[in-house]
């Protein structure tokens, strides 16, 4: 990545986005060191640009700062996954309620279009996603974002995105260890139908079950990953 022609602010953003992408798609392992000097050489930017980018990653929970010892990719754990999942459910339910109450015809069209695009890319067997997880993840995020796109709160959107990123990171860490059959398309269809029916209680029940099932699948994959590493 060439950043020499960018402004200092743009250099920081470019480094942030690049490292963030590598953490989210599991190319940078949890707990691995983020050497400032190496990143300066790699991206051809100033040390201050790298440090600012890493500080932003710390704020988003994707990296941790070590006292006088630099930075590391944030660790993962099953306990953290389930804490994240329950917190995400609470925030998603608030966002969905607001979106359903405020959504107009344009919101309905966004939800329908996002579901249609996602469903066409979702195989019957989840294991088949292993080679196409990154492009599918873009459509998956777009669908869930469409459901809450009428919520009308910048703060909710900001914190949702942070938790969504963390959830996607766990998903990518486990993608090489698919566990059991799952009809993901049916889960998304049920979410869409309940939202368009303006059934807040049902859609919140469904999204909680959807997120918890993902957490259970990822937990099993993480446990298998740990066994394979022994």
Describe what this molecule looks like in 3D:
This protein has two domains: 8-73, Winged helix-like DNA-binding domain superfamily/Winged helix DNA-binding domain (Arc Repressor Mutant, subunit A, Orthogonal Bundle); 78-229, Up-down Bundle (Four Helix Bundle (Hemerythrin (Met), subunit A)). The protein has nine helices and three strands, in the order αβααββαααααα. The chain has helices at 8-24, 36-43, 47-59, 78-102, 105-121, 133-147, 154-174, 184-196, 200-229; strands at 33-34, 63-66, 70-73. A three-stranded antiparallel beta sheet has the order 1-3-2. Strand 2 and strand 3 form a beta hairpin. Helix 2 crosses helix 3, helix 5 packs antiparallel against helix 8 and helix 8 (184-196) packs antiparallel against helix 9 (200-229).
Task: Provide a short characterization of the protein structure.
By secondary structure, the protein is mainly α.
Strands of the widest sheet, in order across it, are 1-3-2
Number of helices: 9
Q: Number of folding domains?
A: 2
Number of strands: 3
- Termini separation: 36 Å
What CATH first level of the largest domain would be assigned? Mainly Alpha
What's the CATH H-level superfamily name of the largest domain?
A: GntR ligand-binding domain-like
Q: What is the CATH topology assignment of the largest domain? A: Four Helix Bundle (Hemerythrin (Met), subunit A)
Mean of all residue-level pLDDT scores: 88
Largest sheet: 3 strands, antiparallel
In the CATH hierarchy, the architecture of the largest domain is: Up-down Bundle
> Which term fits the overall shape?
globular
